Amino acid sequence: MVRLERRTVRDLRRGNRAVLLRTLYFTGPTSRHELSGLTGLSAASVSNVTGDLIAENVIVEAGLVESDGGRPRVLLRVNPAFGYVIGVDVGETHVHVEQFDLDMNELAKAEYTLRPGRHDVDLVVRHILDGIDTVLTSSGTDPAEVMGVGIGVPGIVESGPEALIHAQTFGWDAVPLGALLRAGTPLPLYVDNGAKTMGQAELWFGSGRGSRHAIVVLIGTGVGASIITDGLTYRGVNSSAGEWGHTKVAVGGRACRCGARGCLEAYIGAGSILERAGLSAEMAREQATLAELVRSGDPVIDETIDYLGAGLANLINLFNPERIVIGGWAGHLLGRHELPKIKKAVLENSLSQPFETASIVLGRLGPDAVALGAATLVVEEFLLGKAFSHRQQPAAI
Amino acid sequence: MVRLERRTVRDLRRGNRAVLLRTLYFTGPTSRHELSGLTGLSAASVSNVTGDLIAENVIVEAGLVESDGGRPRVLLRVNPAFGYVIGVDVGETHVHVEQFDLDMNELAKAEYTLRPGRHDVDLVVRHILDGIDTVLTSSGTDPAEVMGVGIGVPGIVESGPEALIHAQTFGWDAVPLGALLRAGTPLPLYVDNGAKTMGQAELWFGSGRGSRHAIVVLIGTGVGASIITDGLTYRGVNSSAGEWGHTKVAVGGRACRCGARGCLEAYIGAGSILERAGLSAEMAREQATLAELVRSGDPVIDETIDYLGAGLANLINLFNPERIVIGGWAGHLLGRHELPKIKKAVLENSLSQPFETASIVLGRLGPDAVALGAATLVVEEFLLGKAFSHRQQPAAI
DNA sequence: ATGCCTTATTTCACGGCCTCATCTAACATG
DNA sequence: CATGTTAGATGAGGCCGTGAAATAAGGCAT
Predict the structure, then answer these.
(1) Stretch among A17-21, A119-123, B240-244, B332-336 having the lowest mean pLDDT
(2) DSSP class per residue in B117-179
(3) Cβ-based neighbour number of residue A202 at 10 Å
(4) Which run of H or of E encompasses B51?
(5) Using 50, 70 and 90 to split pLDDT, how confident is the model at A393?
(6) How many Å apart are CA A137 and CA A154, to the nearest integer?
(7) I need a labelling partner for B328 at 20 to 30 A (CA). Which of A12, A119, A160, A261 fits?
(8) More confident residue, B226 or A384
(9) Does residue A113 approach strand D to less than 7 Å at its CB?
(10) Which pTM was predicted?
(11) What DSSP assignment string belongs to A96-142?
């Protein structure tokens, strides 16, 4: 059932302000005149709203552009120093904490290594809190200028003030990461699944840019996906949507580490590929070993591509996206060498109408995309000016 | 990328008017006072907007309710005779045309039988056009009072003025049904996939009522799904989203009539079940034969349930819905007898967090739901007052 | 009957918003 | 330095939703 909400004349302004701010953010330096054309707002309104935004220091003037014969245009842009955002990537083997300005320039970074298999909650929490301190100190930023901290974690994140995390591979069962961090910092926190944060990074700054219905898949040791519908990350009712890795592509097939059988991850997850090749690779050498398999054209890779093709085709048949972005280190490895084969496998497994409109591309951002994307959770909130409404967001804690 | 749109003070009124109208439509007779509480609008605004709506005859007063000691409340309701809508169900063996008032009371009906395998486009078009005339004549309705005709068809419907239809099972490849109908009637037309129209019927009036994220699956000879996100049918970029029947649950498995292998439909579609049981049933006796299989507890049914469980679990893992509604004649047959087994199969194939929040229920509406749902496409347009914006609708042709 | 009490709905002044038309600013050109 | 051109600002006007006050429409006790 659609939930429409009443609006007052003030919501109007908030909304139009958000329209302007978002346009400015994604278009870059733009004159008031152009903004009027881009947003549909009258020149008068653009003038009013930008006036407010400048007074609040949210946007700043950024040079002139002469126009032939007339008054030059004043370019406006979002003030990158209006505030700062922090993104955290909690991975299987590391915790990365990065600070950005609003232009997403990286200002500072702190990295911590986790011993594989040792995902002590308190240790992770300490790394995150320490990392926040470290980056702020190293960049000389006043904590009051930090708009929030976005955190990308593996597994399912239940939205809510506790941000309960269920991550089987970490041995985390209902870990209240939000509450634990809340005890250590007053900054606004946004916790979300790492595949979703990476997806938002690719959507905003990478290969997904400009698309409205897209899917970003993350293939590493684990397999996940970020589903973007109508330009926003789709989260479902409990924000666990997008668990692509545990969809079944072979009823009664290989056992997966999640306990079920026939999961996609049991075929295309990096560890599973190695297992199927008869290699019991150490975590540490996983990447090099897989790279060698791909390079040597091992038949297990072809089989993997068949499963990947089916998995991607399922997404195409169900979501009818305009773009599919392949990310994650194993995804990059496969995609870099075998994209034509992958596309062929998808073609064989999907209906032709949706297949034809879905372009399949490699992710453009590196492994840091998880932290970058986590930071964009904070920026999203800033751009929507708290005026967003109907779609579930990972609310600040 | 989110597309926010500028709004003027007039959009505000259109939006709030839609809020009020929708509340009134789904809540039933309601006083102005209650409406104020339900919508959040001030009493003054409710008074203004309802005044307009009454003047336009869109809503009418509907009796009084005394309140203890004070002025009695005047109940308001949508005027069921403000306009009429027509829903068409184009199925494998029939064309049904039904006329409803805005309360979705069926006022007239026309039915045509199609010989299986003979899906001549012109014949279908003639049936539809003839059906429209027939129901209007039999109910004595002036065509000028008809708000539109919704048409549910099998296969993929490309949105656009032509409404190109791709339905392999009909042998329809890019049939411009919209254009063909347009030549025969001036009424606004809304063409959409039948699974989607049935889904909207269950969402509005059946087992999906009140849910925001739901999936309605249609299991008959063919297998489809309607995906409801944020209360609206999700269509994707080309409105082909929801092709669940051709997602792969067994890489390299049984051949499907779509040409691929391992499709869900090749295991749980009614015809496929019979085939797997070694019965080459005639279309005409399909239903009775399948019923017999289910009743006798044939092992092929247990196998079917395994595949159905995997298919539903995939939807749960990907969409994290609050409800799954099982519809379609074969779906009802299986669900009526084997719902506990189905739930167990889903449990075994889905992650526990999303599983726990998804209730799995049987559809409540009968086989007429496709036509009813098609008619709701027109009502949807009416309720949104053309003020909807960001979500793709099957635009009127 | 009458006056008071309670609750529902309407009216009205007000402040906020966007837009159109008009005005001013800031440049180039000759 | 006057003129032309384009960018941006300003102000009147028309809508909108809201709160407060007014009015409507009953019940109830006297």
Answers:
(1) A119-123
(2) T---HHHHHHHHHHHHHHHHHHHT--GGGEEEEEEEESSEE--STT-EEEEGGGTEEEEEHHH
(3) 29
(4) helix B43-55
(5) low
(6) 28
(7) A261
(8) B226
(9) no
(10) 0.94
(11) EEEEEETT--EEEEEEEE--TT---HHHHHHHHHHHHHHHHHHHT--
The first and second tokens of residue B12, run together, are: 């505000």
- A49 CA to D2 C1' distance (Å): 35
Number of residues in chain B: 397
Q: Kindly give the residue spans of alpha helices, DSSP state H, lying in chain A.
A: 9-27, 32-39, 43-55, 121-139, 177-182, 194-205, 265-268, 270-276, 286-295, 299-319, 329-349, 352-357, 369-384
* Per-residue buried b or exposed e for B286-295, using 16+ beta carbons within 10 Å of the residue's own CB: bbebbeebbe
Cα distance between residue A388 and residue A396, in whole Å: 14
Q: Which residue in B12, B238, B353 is closest to A240 by CB distance?
A: B353
* Helices (H), ranges, B194-328: 194-205, 265-268, 270-276, 286-296, 299-319
pLDDT digits (tens, 9 = 90+) for B333-344: 999 999 999 999
**Which contacts (CB < 8 Å, 24+ apart) does range B390-395 have?**
B390/A230, B390/B3, B390/B5, B391/A230, B391/B232, B392/B159, B392/B235, B392/B236, B392/B239, B394/B157, B394/B159, B394/B163, B394/B190, B394/B191, B394/B192, B394/B235, B394/B239, B395/B159, B395/B190
Instruction: Let me know: does B363 contact B325? Beta carbons within 8 Å.
Output: yes
pLDDT band, very low/low/confident/very high, at A283 (cuts 50, 70, 90): low
**Separation between the CA of B72 and the C1’ of C3 (whole angstroms):** 20
How far apart, in whole angstroms, are the C-alpha atoms of residue B248 and residue B320? 19
Best CA proximity match to A290, nearest among A252, A258, A333: A333
B44 touches strand D (CB under 7 A): yes
Report the amino acid identity of residue B93. T
A102 versus B3: the higher-pLDDT residue is A102
Residue B3 Cβ < 7 Å to strand C: no
Instruction: For B3-33, give one letter per residue: b (16+ CB within 10 A) or e.
Output: ebebbeeebbbbbbbbbbbbbbbbeebbbbe
Q: Which of residues 32-61 of A touch strand D (CB under 7 A)?
A: 32-34, 43-44, 47-48, 50-51
Assess whether pLDDT exceeds 70 at residue A395.
no
The identity of residue A247, as a single letter, is: T
pLDDT tens digits, B60-112? 999 888 777 789 999 999 999 999 999 999 998 899 999 999 999 999 999 99
Q: Which residues contact A193 (CB under 8 A, 6 or more apart)?
A: A152, A153, A154, A155, A156, A157, A224, A239, A242
Torsion of CA B32, B38, B41, B43, to 10 degrees: 30
Looking at residues A186-206, what average pLDDT do you find? 96
Nucleotide nearest to B75 (CA to C1'): C8
What would the pLDDT profile of B355-394 be if each residue is shown by its tens digit?
A: 999 999 999 998 789 999 999 999 999 998 753 344 455 6
Nearest to A320 among B22, B241, B310 (CB): B241
In angstroms, what CA-CA distances link A316 with A211, A216, A325, B351, B394? 15, 12, 12, 22, 20
Q: Name A379's bridge partners.
A: none
